[in-house]
Design goal:
The complex is a heterotrimer of chains A (about 600), B (about 400) and C (about 160). Chain B is of the alpha/beta class and about 400 residues long. Chain B has helices at about 20-30, 35-45, 55-65, 85-90, 95-110, 125-140, 160-170, 200-210, 210-215, 250-255, 310-325, 330-350, 355-370, 375-390, 390-395, and strands at about 70-75, 110-115, 145-150, 195, 220, 225, 225-235, 240-245, 260-265, 270-275, 280-285, 295, 300-305. In chain B, the strands form four sheets. Chain B has a five-stranded mixed sheet with strand order 8-7-13-9-10. In chain B, strands 3-2-1-4 form a four-stranded parallel sheet, with helices on both faces. Chain C has helices at about 5-15, 20-30, 35-45, 50-60, 80-85, 85-100, 140-150, and strands at about 70-75, 110-115, 130, 135. The relative contact order of chain C is 0.12. The chains are: A alpha/beta (about 600), B alpha/beta (about 400), C alpha+beta (about 160).
Chain lengths: ~600, ~400, ~160
């Protein structure tokens, strides 16, 4: 129980709990103190010095984000001293910054730009240090562009990569005027342990870290009459896109999104969720096969626990950090890649289009998907399975460029053949979703009954805790699955790579007692992905997850194996799960990578 | 009440032999802890590294802090330009420092001492380790559980800042932390820590040996005791001198100047440049309502005669800070660059002279907003040099 | 001694925690004269620390060099007291004798020359250190003498 203390802010008395920092205390009296290096997802740094406030009686100012309130403090957030100093701080940052805003990808969405605008910094009296310095531009990664000339050295990216993701691809190097954000030996992000998860992009206040965008390339494809451009949309996009269009957080804009995509000129608007359902059938079968090998054949080489493989950030992570456990990964491709491979084979055949004229585009909440699409082995169709990946943010840019008044659009449905999805497919977007979808199908395959949870909501697997475990008891199985009678299927879910590490360390130590592990690289799952609208925080991610679950409940079909288009594709094309064609198109391999 | 400044008085406490250290150590650890703390408090000893925090209070707060894991750290990262006294103390009377650390450990409840020795003093590592071995042997003999280790620095001035030192000791970049929390509650490994300058520790030895009064009787109000000064520059008597606090700068210059002293840099690059016309009214001591200006200092005193360019001085200091800043906070990282680029531009005529006023305001902002003492102190030399030698900045 | 072995030896001596990082980095610089990419990779593996962290920490400290340095690194103090007592003449003397400039190393790998900040010998300025040995009250003549001794040393 902490004590209540009394302070004043700008003359207004307010009571706060002991240890509340000034920044939070100010919110109680509706004062928003500007910040740059502060972010609710990560620890306090206190280095930008934008949030400085005056405490009566003290000559020096103090950082609001890092200073706890004390009894009797008399705080001034807008005194002349504060304003003069704040202006100086902003001017200093601008003097070291590439302020050519009109040419910047973050124009209109940059926190430094907003500060400069709020404080009306209309002259630059200081010397433009930016002109004298040598800055690096790293655009070798397929996912992320790092531009040092726009970096304000707030270290948000470093803290995110370290604390939130535990990847540590970025660090602070050198000191003094040479201090900068760097990778190991200043290598390109593409050549180090970076998983492309894009959390750094989500947390960067300026244009120093942005996604590599393919907007012009996609416009080019759409405008080319020879090309048939197919687009797939991930589940998380439909609950995030609204934020870019002025909707409050947590709004589902599925119908309008489909309409907008049609208006942009895509020839077919299809749903990644279809492939998610497909993934469940393949992966569920794969899991049951491994369990059979372990329990019936007593094969000592069976790799259990089996881990999901739809998060490319997670895949790159395990390739770098736990390469000896690659065999534990499901060999299933991610829904995006399965979809891509099928577009240029199954879909092309059905629509009678030459696959070499098909351009396969995906809209993803993810930056790592750009890396995934470019992985050399992803050409199972005989062509590049996915040609371009656009983030939710890039889609929003294209919609605005096309002059589409999003809010006024009518609701439309996905096109057919690969556009039907179930509630199980939708929940892929949330942490625990893949696991829950898999359980809905696997349980029914094995027992012939629906999984015994009200509304098929497997509540124990939901939530925001970093690592969650649940046990599902298998009873009264069908004859074929007798070997699973009485088995307690243990399932684990981890989101955010620091939690993936926790789970994998258990596996490494031999103390992991779970059979099936779902890992999402991003906090909250895909809804918190590196390509989603900025800002992000725990509150926002919770609302997006709630929207995903609402979308699930609203679906007529809730289990992947009941998706009629999935049933059709097996009948007409693939044959059976884990069949020969499935192996060729829907499964993949992994590689060992260095730890640096 | 106005106190007269004192005439320059040479004192000999610090460099007097330390051969009685075994006796002093044994005597002290058999005294009640509260008595030792009170002795330090009543001596009014203040930190001799430059920051001047009351030592007795520091030891008191740390002894009262919760936790059984506590540390005593000797800050031997002497890097302030013009300071070289700690090196001498560690060379000539190291046992005083070790004894003081052990007594501190006894008082606060710590059995872990670390000496952070700057990389530039690597040649001292072996001799100091030998001394530590002998010291440890004695401690074992008298059943005093206190180990001392040396941690070598690697060339980073900012590590002399207390929280940056903790970071460095923990194997990280020497980036200062946010305060609060303060070291007495959360320091090395986030545990209660006493961190003291080498000289400060040596003074506590004097106090424990002779009692508080002998120390207190020297100096003036708010600035009790003696201080070791590192004197260099245009002086016929460069070297290390222990002097009573409270002297006027005029008396100092009369003693140590070469007859043509134009200015004195008090406290290194982080300190103040005092021009000749202010020698009489400037007193060397900690804050307080003394006659004229009082200036705290880590003891670095650099004298400059009329042949010296004050512009070169400022250029040299700003280059120093621009390089040695840890770089994490905006006002210091960019401010130091702006100040240096600014004075160069004014000198070259690329900026008009009034630009100096904008720079002075910037240095003030740095003073108010920088995260640690480095950024906060740049204004000291910047303002004192620019204001007193404006012409030399322009022409 | 082979690099990997050396690092294991240093880790055995100093430990394998984050706190062991600086002493180990110093130890590697001591024998290799600089930190190579390989040594950083080996250290990060041995201590199970992220490579970028090791790099970021090492680049903070001026004495942990990343360029290949000579066997004897000459560091001449450039801070105010030494600066006004003739450090430029000292630099000229060194540059003249060794035919290298600041930031360079002699082709035979014997010497490197850098400037450094206050060494703590201001009353005996100008000063320099060669590796860890301190030389003060320098004159161009004295410098030539000192370097002469180093030229005869085995490398």
């Amino acid at each position: 129980m902490s004590d209540t203390i009394h302070i004043t802010i700008n003359g207004i008395p307010v009571e706060v709990n002991e240890n509340t920092v000034i920044l939070d205390a100010a919110k109680k009296v509706n004062v928003v103190i500007p910040t740059l290096c502060y972010h609710p997802d990560i620890c306090v740094a206190g280095n930008c010095r934008v949030c400085m406030v005056e405490i009566s009686g003290q000559k020096r100012l103090t950082a609001a984000c890092a200073t706890p309130c004390e009894e009797g403090m008399d705080i001034l957030t807008n005194s002349l001293k504060v304003r003069n100093c704040r202006k100086h701080i902003i001017e200093l940052l601008l003097s070291e910054h590439n302020s050519d805003c009109t040419k910047c990808y973050k124009n209109g969405k940059c926190e430094l730009q907003k500060l400069a605008s709020d404080y009306k910094i209309m002259t630059q009296d200081f010397i433009e240090l930016y002109r004298e310095k040598k800055y690096t531009l790293d655009n070798f990664s397929p996912s992320i562009v790092k531009d040092d000339s726009k970096c304000i050295r707030c270290q948000r990216c470093v803290r995110t990569c370290e604390e939130l993701q535990g990847v540590n691809a970025l660090s602070v190097a050198y000191k003094g005027h040479e201090m900068k954000i760097s990778t190991f030996y200043e290598k390109s992000m593409n050549d180090v342990v970076c998983t492309n998860c894009g959390q750094c992009v989500n947390h960067c206040p300026t244009g120093a870290l942005v996604e590599k965008n393919y907007i012009e390339e996609v416009w080019g494809a759409i405008s080319d009459p020879e090309l048939h451009v197919v687009v797939q949309t991930a589940p998380a996009v439909r609950v995030g896109l609204g934020e870019e269009m002025g909707y409050p957080v947590g709004n589902r804009v599925t119908g309008k999104m489909v309409c907008a995509l049609k208006r942009l000129g895509f020839d077919a608007v299809l749903d990644t969720d279809f492939a998610a359902d497909l993934t469940i059938v393949e992966e569920g079968t794969e899991l049951l096969e491994r369990l059979r090998k372990a329990i019936v054949d007593k094969d000592p080489h069976v790799a259990l626990p089996m881990a999901t493989s739809c998060s490319p950030g997670w895949i790159k992570y395990i390739e770098h950090m736990y390469p000896e456990y690659l065999k534990n990964l499901s060999t299933c491709k991610s829904p995006q890649q399965m979809f891509g491979a099928l577009v240029k084979t199954y879909y092309a055949k059905a629509r009678n289009i030459d696959p070499k004229n098909i351009v396969s585009v995906s809209i993803m909440p993810c930056t790592a998907k750009k890396f995934e699409a470019a992985r050399p082995e992803m050409h199972g169709s005989g062509y590049r399975d996915v040609d371009y990946v656009l983030t939710t943010r890039e889609l929003a840019i294209m919609i605005k460029q096309a002059g589409i008044d999003f809010v006024q659009l009518e609701e439309m449905d996905f096109d057919r053949l690969m556009g039907e999805s179930t509630g199980a497919g939708v929940i892929f977007g949330a942490t625990g979703g893949v696991m829950e979808a898999a359980l809905r199908t696997v349980y029914e395959i094995v027992t012939g009954r629906e999984i015994p949870f009200k509304n098929l909501v497997v509540q124990p697997i939901r939530g925001m805790e970093g690592v969650r475990m649940t046990t599902i008891k298998i009873e009264n199985t069908l004859e074929e699955w007798k070997f699973l009678e009485g088995v307690e299927l243990k399932c684990a879910v981890a989101h955010g790579l620091t939690n993936a590490k926790k789970a994998m360390d258990l596996v490494k130590a031999g103390t992991a007692d779970f059979h099936f592990l779902e890992v999402m690289a991003c906090p909250g799952g895909c809804i918190g992905g590196g390509g989603q609208p900025i800002p992000t925080n725990a509150e926002i991610r919770k609302k997006r997850v709630a929207a995903i679950y609402a979308e699930d409940l609203g679906k007529p079909i809730r289990k992947s194996h009941e998706n009629p288009e999935v049933i059709k594709i097996y009948n007409d094309f693939l044959g059976k799960p884990l069949g020969e064609l499935s192996h060729k198109l829907l499964h993949t391999t992994y590689q060992t990578r260095e730890r640096t | 009440m106005i106190e007269q400044h004192l005439l320059l008085k040479r004192v000999d406490f610090i460099f007097v032999h330390d051969t009685d250290w075994e006796k002093i150590l044994q005597k002290s650890i058999h005294r009640p802890k509260q008595e030792l703390i009170n002795e330090l408090i009543s001596s009014e000893l203040k930190g001799r590294g430059g920051a001047g925090f009351p030592t007795g209070l520091k030891w008191k707060l740390t002894s009262e802090a919760n936790g059984s894991e506590k540390y005593v750290i000797c800050n031997a990262d002497e890097g302030e330009p013009g300071t070289f006294k700690d090196r001498e103390i560690l060379t000539r009377v190291p046992y005083k420092v070790l004894t003081a650390m052990a007594i501190c450990g006894f008082i606060i409840g710590s059995n872990n001492g670390i000496i952070y020795l700057r990389g530039e003093y690597k040649y001292l590592e072996n001799p100091l380790n030998e001394v530590i071995n002998e010291f440890s042997y004695f401690c074992k003999k008298i059943n005093l559980d206190f180990t001392i280790k040396i941690f070598m620095g690697s060339g980073a001035y900012i590590c002399g800042e207390e929280t940056a030192m903790f970071e460095s000791l923990e194997g990280k970049r020497g980036e200062p932390r946010n305060k609060p929390p303060f070291p007495s509650v959360s320091g090395f490994r986030n545990k209660p820590t006493v961190i003291n300058n080498v000289e400060t520790l040596a003074h506590t030895y004097t106090i424990f040996k002779y009692g508080a009064k002998k120390f207190y009787d020297l100096g003036v109000q708010y600035s009790r005791g003696s201080k070791v000064f590192s004197i260099s520059g245009d002086t016929p008597k460069p070297g290390i001198y222990e002097l009573e606090l409270g002297m006027s700068l005029q008396d100092f210059v009369d003693e140590f100047g070469d007859g043509d002293t134009k200015a004195v840099q008090v406290g290194g690059a982080s300190g103040f440049l005092v021009p000749r016309k202010k020698f009489k009214e400037t007193v060397i001591g900690y804050q307080g309502k003394l006659v004229g200006i009082s200036l705290p200092t880590g003891g670095s005193m650099m004298l400059f005669n009329s042949s010296r360019s004050m512009y070169n001085l400022l250029d040299n200091y700003l280059e120093f800070f621009r390089e040695e800043s840890c770089g994490q906070c905006t006002p210091c990282r960019i401010g130091c660059q702006q100040l240096l680029a600014g004075i160069k531009a004014v000198k070259k005529g690329e900026r008009p002279a009034p630009y100096l006023e904008k720079l002075l305001k910037l240095s003030e902002t740095m003073q108010y907003t920088a995260k640690c003492g480095l950024g906060q102190s740049v204004a000291n030399s910047f303002a004192s040099i620019v204001e007193n030698f404006r012409e030399e900045m322009i022409y | 001694m082979e690099l990997h072995k050396r690092i294991v030896e240093l880790a055995d001596l100093h430990g394998r925690t984050r706190e062991s990082l600086l002493p180990i980095l110093q130890g590697v610089v001591e024998c290799e004269n600089y930190l190579s990419k390989r040594s950083m990779t080996e250290i990060s593996k041995e201590l199970d620390l992220p490579a970028a962290e090791v790099y970021g920490t090492a680049t903070f400290y001026s004495f942990l060099e990343f360029r290949k340095m000579g066997k004897f690194t000459i560091r001449v103090c450039k801070t105010i007291s030494c600066s006004m007592k003739g450090k430029n003449q000292i630099l000229l003397a060194i540059e003249d004798m060794l035919k290298i400039e600041i930031g360079q190393s002699t082709p035979d790998g014997r010497f490197s020359l850098v400037e450094t900040n206050c060494l703590g010998w201001c009353h005996k300025a100008p000063a320099m250190v060669i590796n860890h040995e301190v030389f003060t009250e320098l004159t161009p003549e004295k410098v030539r003498e000192i370097l002469g001794v180093y030229l005869k040393k085995e490398i």
